[in-house]
UniProtKB/TrEMBL annotation:
Record keywords, A-Z: Hydrolase
Official protein name in the record: Serine hydrolase domain-containing protein
Superkingdom of the organism of origin: Bacteria
Domain Beta-lactamase-related span(s) in chain numbering: 14-328
Domain DUF7586: 350-428
Species in which this protein is naturally found: Aeromicrobium halocynthiae
Molecular function as annotated in GO: hydrolase activity
Length: 446
């Protein structure tokens, strides 16, 4: 699709307002729909000085913690190959790191590891090797008991990738993730044209250069550089267009919320999955990640339902506002996604006798067919859930019944009499004697 000229103008105006009002030397953004980039633009001078080169959508910025999503995808590739398990203790693969934490806990920031290294501020000083990082691997919390963001933990995961592949993590990610996606402008060190890392004084219109070094062992936590044009491919990937880099089911698994960013004053709005951040706003769910390094800010956000995605990059230490969310909202408002017409499906005829009302005790649960799924109740409400075909049964996809098997029991005439799900029995009427309800129904209703 191509955006209407009026839409492109509105988006560019919002981008320009962000650069001017928040005093960003330069800012670039891109939008993705249906797996491809539909808009990108850049505003400002990367140097922050008038008369210098203007930013464009191929300009590289350091993407900070967005790097973690690439490392996480590579870890999931290793899992899919059978080389590791998410429940494996890390010392099984890194014997020189004797910690009682699992791969999944490192990915989800629930390992309890300290957030930063013991040395000086690693983002602004030259990096150190694995042995130095290993000495910073101390537990502050019992593993698996709480969310605690850990840059150190992703340094460990980078070493895991390197150890199992026999090559530096960045080379592995480049060969197995970036190259198949044609992401040629995503690199571990800056490749011209690049934006310099800058800090803008909070009370004056003056600039301060931010240093840039190779973070070495900590590089997997925030080393990569990229452009918005390149990262638009990563936004499409995050929306499910995985181009055989990883199974779409594995990607969906890695994007399920695992640990809440607990705020006792509010209902949760942000969580962490296996390398990805998950957020909820106005009833819609988003996946992606933010990035922050001295001199740089990054945002990547994908609407899970629509698949629309946004990338924003700026070269400032602070100051970026809700630009990513605003650009996505403008796209949805001004260019609503096409509505797919409903059509009938002959494939559903074999399930017709299952559909209708079923009862769990006295609670009524309608069973319907939506696309390829059986739906019990309403997903997201109580114990409502979707189920996908699993051989001669069905397997739950979310909520209380995630992963649980739903088995249909028929009588000698082939009539469905009961559904068995996680030991619970659903019958056509409340406590139907023909359903063989555990505990019996001999007393009947009185």
């Amino acid at each position: 699709m191509s955006l209407a000229s009026g839409t492109a103008e509105v988006l560019h105006r919002r981008l320009a307002a962000e650069q001017a009002e928040r005093r960003l030397p330069s800012v670039a953004a891109a939008l993705v729909r249906d797996g491809r980039r539909v808009w990108s633009a850049a505003v400002g001078h990367p140097s922050g000085r008038p008369g210098s080169t203007v930013a464009d959508t191929d300009t590289q910025y350091r993407i900070g913690s967005l790097t973690k999503t690439f490392v996480a995808v590579q870890v999931m590739r290793l899992r899919d190959e059978g080389l590791i398990g998410l429940a494996d203790p890390i010392h099984r693969h890194l014997p020189d790191l004797d910690l009682p934490v699992t791969v999944a806990q490192l990915l989800s920031h629930t390992s309890g590891l300290q957030a930063e290294t013991d040395g000086p501020w690693w983002e602004r000083t030259a990096g150190d090797d694995w042995s130095a990082l290993r000495s910073s691997c101390r537990l502050l919390h019992a593993p698996g008991t709480r969310f605690h963001y850990s840059n150190v933990g992703f340094g460990v995961l980078g070493e895991l990738v390197a150890r199992l592949r026999g090559a530096p993590w960045a080379e592995v990610v480049a060969a197995e993730v970036l190259e198949p996606l044609d992401m040629r402008r995503t690199t571990p060190r800056p490749v011209s044209p690049t934006a310099p890392g800058l800090a803008v004084h909070p009370f004056a219109d003056v600039l301060h250069d931010e240093p840039e070094h190779d973070a070495v062992a900590m590089a997997p936590a925030g080393q990569l550089w990229s452009s918005v044009d390149d990262l638009s491919r990563w936004a499409a990937f995050a929306a499910g267009h995985t181009a055989d880099v990883i199974d779409p089911g594995t990607l969906a698994e890695s994007q399920r919320a695992v640990a809440l960013w607990d705020d006792p004053t509010n209902a949760w709005t942000t969580a962490h999955a296996l390398g990805w951040q998950v957020s909820v706003k106005d009833g819609r769910r988003f996946v992606g990640h933010g990035g922050s390094m001295p001199g740089f800010l990054a945002q990547l956000r994908v609407d899970v339902e629509s698949g629309d995605g946004v990338v924003v990059l700026a070269n400032a230490t602070s100051g970026l506002g809700p630009l990513a969310a605003d650009l996505l909202a403008l796209l949805a408002e001004r260019e609503p996604a096409a509505v797919t017409p409903w059509t009938a499906s002959r494939d559903h005829r074999d399930d017709l006798d299952l559909l209708g009302d079923w009862f769990w005790g006295t609670a009524r649960f309608p069973l319907t067919r939506r696309g390829e799924h059986l739906v019990l109740g309403e997903p997201g409400v109580g114990r409502g859930a979707r189920f996908e075909r699993d051989g001669d049964a069905w397997r739950g996809l979310e909520g209380y019944y995630s992963g649980e098997r739903l088995v249909v029991h028929r009588d000698g005439a082939g009539v469905a009499r009961r559904l068995e799900l996680a030991s619970f029995v659903f019958t056509r009427t409340p406590y139907d004697p023909a359903g063989e309800v555990p505990g019996g129904t001999d007393g009947g209703w009185s």
